[in-house]
Amino acid sequence: MKILLLDYGRDLEKEEFIKLISFVSADIISFEERDHKIALQVQDNGDLEQIKFNFNRLMEKYCSPKESEYIYFQHKHSKKQKYYDTHSIYESDRIESFEKGLIGFKKEAVHLFNYFSSIFRTFAIEEHAEERIYPTLLPMEVYKKTGYLKSSPQYAMFCCDVLESMDSISALNELAGHSDVHHVLSEPSLALSPSACFHTYRELENQSLKTSQSLTFTQKVFRNEGRFNWNEFGRLRDYHVREIVFIGDAQYVLNQRNRIMDKVATLMQQLNLSGQIAAASDPFIIPDMQSYKKIQLFEKSKYELRLSTSEEKSLACASFNLHGISFTKAFHIEVENCSRTVTGCIGFGIERWVLAFMCQYGIHYEKWPAMVLESMK
Fold it and tell me: Which of 81, 124, 183, 276 is the most exposed place for a label (fewest CB within 10 A)?
């Protein structure tokens, strides 16, 4: 094992940058901070010069003077708040941990999941959204058409079939879990989608809609967040999203997004949940995509709800996005009598709402707000 000691850049967005270190090289075993430097532990056969080049290239794009944060809404618990330890929540009998980034819910946590899922569905129905049920698997050609493999390829997770031959089928059990397994697998034609809304654009492809519309559904989302990040509370490889997608003119999409943001702000007040809705940007890993972060922040095309999990930390639990013509252009979607058809979406990460709620109110339902207890009757 070799150690590579590197300097942090000035004005580095360190919290976001650290999450991406695993993508610098597969030869990085681990890392630690040492007196404003970072020490990378590297495999003996790792190319230190290439790793240093990749590290510095990525870091340069995350070095910029921090802009003042635009907060759309903020709520603080009305009383001095006690936060519950994240480790104890994961170790409780309400959570089942299967593997890094994979969790399940039991007992009262199941009720919380269903409670929040129902509320977010109600938000959508109140805004006249039509319901959909989509498959989990996403065709590769649809994935590529979204542009996501260019902007955020680090999240990609693909699905392969076993080759249709008796030799491959017979060898699968022995090879599964080993590097040679790819010899008996086909090229992937399907993916696990990193974003809930992609199936919608495939459904509406090459269509001219009579009016602006909203669609809603619950979808499983899958993301490879990097091997060094799975110990972070709420960092999940596989999770449920209540999605609401808007298609229409810019004013319609903006109004729909903002109305639901206001509903979320009201919910935070009703449940006395500490957190904020603030302008945000996507974690683009490709250096050439970094300029889009500034555009998102300037145009306020993305807001993110972060619920507090401690005095210092918070968890992103929802995003509120305007896409412009990114998807309507790629999928040839238009609305009649609309000169510029755009889309937007809102995604509620249901597992994260449950986890953040437990950080603020604990795992014992006797301490939960009356509004939640009423729903349990």
Answer: 183
